[in-house]
Amino acid sequence: TKKVWYEFSYPSQRNSYKSGSFLGRLGGRYRYTEERMHPGESLYAIGMFMSVGGGAESFNTDAEVREVLALWKKNRTGLLKHFDANGDGELDVQEWEAVRKAAYERVRREQSKRSVEPPTHLMKKPQYDNRPYLLSVYPQYELIKRYKLKAGGCLAGFFVAGSAAVWMATLRLI
């Protein structure tokens, strides 16, 4: 559905869902246009479809372990409290290996939880600029008709403008 309203303020968070006031419709400074798709409407989509998460996700365990370790390193007192076995205030090689093992186990637990979740499906703009991205509630045949009419109008306008330019140039030369 398409909704158009006029207001004097920019941007207006307060009235963005309303149709605008009477004075706003008479000459508001800003015109707002909102086009929405509602649940249950048919959807025509062209773009890059991908699934994220769930069993289809490939995990980068090493990178996730590095992230967990970087997070833990920010809290040095907590790290020492949990992993400094000899209490000397420093982590030796064996204690650091215990930290790495705990981070690895935590990452694997989180990955196993994420792998049983259902995947999230996304439609996004393709990575390459020459590929189309289109979301519409209109069926394909209607979109084709609309874009053919626009293309034909642009082509006719091009020829009319070109003819007018040639005609004006010939008048000037005479």
Automatic annotation (TrEMBL):
One of its GO terms (molecular function) is calcium ion binding. InterPro entries: EF_Hand_1_Ca_BS, EF_hand_dom. The keyword Transmembrane applies. The keyword Transmembrane applies. Keywords: Membrane, Transmembrane, Transmembrane helix. The chain crosses the membrane at residues 151-170. Residues 79-106 form the EF-hand domain. This is EF-hand domain-containing protein. It comes from hydrothermal vent metagenome.
